[in-house]
């Protein structure tokens, strides 16, 4: 076992980091550099000439990929090897098979567990197809997805990204927060008699989701509607929610599908296929599957998620940049950064390696972002002239979704959007000199663009999988387990204790003053408000 | 002039940072500490016992406030002194008078420019009142705000926060992005005959906004509606948009109102008063005004925005934490963090001090956030166990907005929400030991809670102003100009060049290959897609 800081590529990169390329220097950012630092696959171009890398840095990064066997690990993951584990300690000990959820096209991955997972997923897909035909006949128009975390963020981000492609008279809504105002607002917006409520929880025991389910049931009953006719479960087989008496249909997920990787499982499939119709929905899966295969490519120069991962590692571990912004120049992708926050930070915000030892290097960065051009009128001041450098992953599209555009002064809105994207990418890299220190731009803000034709189902599927594999590759390189989330347990345990206190106070029961006194101090302050 | 790093308080704090208090240590986080580290004013409690501060640190921070004369600077700002400037260089050279937009209650600030600004603002408010009475009679139900940056983020964040309080049959929508899909989607959702379109641009020349205005006009004309009857301008006097032939009404803003500080000017007032009605809207202004006055208090222990600012400076400059998350445990506040990104990062993401010299200390952090409990199911893994510590500013409410709640297992959803908030605050500070390294929580993640009764107009007004003054205080301490945004200019200039290229290409005009060749390389890649 070789630790990250003992890799020979890391030694080279540590040498190279001392003197990173200066993109503000005349003659550095040339058209030749832009052309040479362009990778392309699946209709997506990655323009990374504006990252602070040289050919030497890229070579050393590719060597890092070799030394850490990332392609082999990716293949093992997709084949169903147990990669969700920490050696020598109690852990989840599971396969990681979200790629099997969309492995229905072309050549399948024949890894033994992978194949079985694909077969099971295909059964659910067939069931979903039949179900949607029924629903079509019965005239349902709305679907409310009740879930939190991965049962909300990814499915919501993708739905919004593709809302332009939904069937007429179909709409999807989401309830996630245990905040009761969230459910109230949605319920007041739909006609419940034409609405399906999809309750999503792998464990069948998620506090927020079950609480919201109860709220919805109360509302349905008040309207004189049968809860069973309107409620659908997406859950693990034999979970407390796997109960045909309570739901008109149950769709299954499995323990090898992590919440943040579950968009292409039934967690996202039910709402997306309801909204888009089967054909466009399959295009979305097709895009994801194509990216899964690309991630296995040993031709590093076309392996987009690997290049993205390596550039991220360079920025994080060698340029020492603590955050990473993802900025899609598309309003439809407004919630994509929120999904990536979970995907990336829950996967790679880890402090021990796969052998249970604390790491002595940085792992996953703080991921954040908003759509452009909006961000330009918000936080770009800080990005251009702040004291903390923020690397950016831009996403851009040649065409708009609705093609409802207008030429003003000789250019369309879509062209203006793209002009802004290109301008930011270049300006952040080159900066600008000025005698007025307030108009001086230091430049050398690393960034790259993922440029593609249109924000359509296939492309969004490919982009979803791009980020899943970028994150997985970084986890392989950092030698961490990107697939568990032990860091969320402490909060749950403590919250349950405090919920208990609330219940006791209501019943007039005594609470031992020595039991979690800090929480009692907080409750005292609350009570006094 | 004393530079930040030469202040005697900074010297003390630098000494203290070497050995910050260890909150994970048994007996450190006591109920006594929680009680003593609670500040309270305007019905808001700030619980900061979970920050890594001691009495000595707080003393030194208050000394920092003294040394940098922050209260005096706040008073000068509110009185209308020209505080938006860089000494010795061409700059905006303006007063900063957003506080005058809500200075109608109790005792007014009598600073000469402040008083004049308040009088002008009051005239607009009277005009708005008359206008809304007309609109009421004419049966308008919807309002679309067309603006970007400060004309969008703040007004949208506040509207969503207070949507529970809106009048029946009133709804506000927002179009911001130059992405044409944004306008298309909104227009398809409203009945244009009953809709007002409010175009907001101080300069009257914002590219995105004017483009969207044209798109909307096209749609109105297609429907056979008079554009003038439906369009309202919010702009600077004598801007290109100040044109009574084109708009049914114009409301004015002034150069002393920065975009990110404009929510309580007509930029936010028109849509908020339309939605909430005059009475609740004035409550919102009243809350902001009360916080303005609190920010002038020399009793530091009740001056909430000052304490917030100082804790932020401790985390940023002494604990060296690059980001700051704001996490409201309220779904209604979902876009509040996006507003704070602009407010904070555009104000304090600066690299020179007010004398034009580059700073040698960190200024504004990267601000980000999502509502809780949602975040718990997303990025909290990284917050608890990642390698980069994230300080958090939590916001919590005793009561829900709609009071549409349900008891499940003896507690309401609102109580579960609060239990989670308290659990996170405590767990992040104390951490948890375990023999399984994956279940070990290092703790010492600094955080505090702003706890208040209800997310209502007065409180949201107070919270809005809390953050405005927190940011201003930090700017005073760092000796930077928090009120300009020169860092957004470069992108605009470069974007206009590229927009020109698009127009030329369409006309078949030649572009000189030596003119901005990198942009031409990008365009070549786009064309080849």
Task: Describe the fold and architecture.
- Two copies of one chain form a homodimer.
- Chain A is an alpha/beta fold.
- The first copy, chain A, is 44% helix and 12% strand.
- In chain A, strands 1-2-15-12-10-11 form a six-stranded mixed beta sheet, with helices on both faces. A five-stranded parallel beta sheet of chain A has the order 6-5-7-8-9, with helices on both faces.
- In chain A, β5, α6 and β6 form a beta-alpha-beta unit.
- In chain A, α1 (8-17) runs antiparallel to α3, α11 packs parallel to α16 (457-478) and α13 (336-348) packs parallel to α16.
Oligomer: homodimer
Task: Please tell me the overall pLDDT of chain A.
Answer: 96
Structural class of chain A: alpha/beta
Largest sheet of chain A: 6 strands, mixed
Poorly predicted ranges of chain A (pLDDT <50, ≥5 residues)? Answer: none
What is the CA-atom radius of gyration of chain A, in angstroms? 24 Å
Strand tally of chain A:
15
Q: How are the strands of the largest sheet of chain A arranged?
A: 1-2-15-12-10-11
**Content of β-strand of chain A:** 5-15%
Largest interface: A-B, 158 and 159 residues
Number of helices, where a helix is a run of at least 4 consecutive DSSP H or I residues of chain A: 18
What is the terminal separation of chain A in angstroms? 56 Å
Shape of chain A: globular
Helix content of chain A: 40-55%
């Amino acid at each position: 076992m070789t630790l990250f800081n003992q890799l020979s590529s890391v030694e080279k990169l540590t040498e190279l980091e001392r003197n990173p390329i200066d993109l503000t220097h005349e003659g550095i950012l040339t058209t030749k550099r832009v052309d040479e630092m362009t990778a392309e696959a699946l209709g997506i171009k990655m323009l990374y000439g504006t990252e602070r890398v040289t050919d030497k840095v890229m070579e050393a990064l590719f060597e890092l990929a070799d030394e850490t066997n990332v392609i082999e690990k990716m293949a093992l993951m997709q084949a169903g090897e147990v990669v969700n584990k920490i050696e020598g300690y109690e852990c989840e000990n599971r396969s990681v098979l979200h790629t099997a959820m969309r492995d229905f096209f072309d050549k399948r991955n024949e890894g033994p567990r992978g194949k079985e997972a694909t077969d099971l997923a295909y059964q659910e897909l067939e069931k979903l197809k039949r179900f949607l035909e029924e629903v079509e006949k019965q005239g349902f128009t709305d679907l409310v997805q009740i879930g939190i975390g991965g049962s909300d963020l990814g499915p919501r981000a993708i739905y919004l990204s593709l809302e332009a492609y939904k069937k007429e008279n179909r709409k999807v809504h989401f309830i996630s927060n245990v905040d009761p105002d969230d459910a109230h607002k949605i319920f007041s917006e739909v006609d419940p008699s034409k609405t399906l409520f999809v309750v999503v929880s792998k464990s069948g025991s998620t506090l927020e989701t079950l609480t919201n389910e109860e709220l919805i049931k109360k509302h349905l009953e008040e309207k004189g509607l049968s809860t069973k006719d309107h409620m659908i479960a997406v859950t693990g087989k034999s979970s407390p929610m796997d109960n045909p008496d309570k739901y008109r249909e149950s769709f299954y997920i499995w323990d090898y599908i992590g919440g943040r990787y579950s968009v292409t499982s039934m967690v996202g499939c039910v709402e997306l296929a309801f909204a888009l119709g089967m054909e466009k929905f399959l295009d979305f899966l097709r895009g994801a599957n194509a990216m899964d295969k690309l991630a296995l490519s040993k031709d590093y120069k076309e392996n987009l998620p690997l290049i993205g991962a390596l550039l991220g590692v360079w920025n994080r571990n060698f340029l020492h940049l603590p955050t990473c912004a993802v900025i899609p120049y598309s309003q439809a992708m407004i919630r994509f950064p929120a999904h990536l926050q979970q995907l990336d930070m829950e996967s790679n915000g880890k402090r021990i390696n796969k052998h249970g030892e604390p790491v002595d290097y940085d792992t996953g960065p703080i991921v954040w972002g908003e759509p452009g051009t909006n961000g330009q009128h918000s936080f770009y001041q800080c990005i251009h002239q702040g004291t903390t450098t923020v690397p950016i992953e831009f996403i851009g599209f040649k065409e708009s979704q609705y093609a409802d555009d207008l030429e003003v002064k000789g250019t369309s809105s879509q062209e203006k959007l793209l002009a802004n994207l290109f301008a930011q990418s270049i300006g952040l890299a080159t900066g600008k000199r000025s005698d007025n220190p307030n108009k001086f731009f230091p430049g050398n803000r690393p960034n790259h663009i993922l440029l593609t034709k249109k924000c359509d189902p296939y492309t969004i599927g490919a982009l979803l999988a791009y980020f899943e594999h970028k994150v997985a590759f970084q986890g392989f390189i950092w030698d961490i387990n990107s697939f568990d989330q032990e860091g969320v347990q402490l909060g749950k345990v403590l919250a349950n204790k405090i919920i208990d206190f609330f219940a006791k106070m209501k019943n007039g029961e005594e609470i031992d003053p020595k039991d979690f006194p800090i929480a009692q101090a907080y409750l005292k302050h609350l009570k006094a408000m």
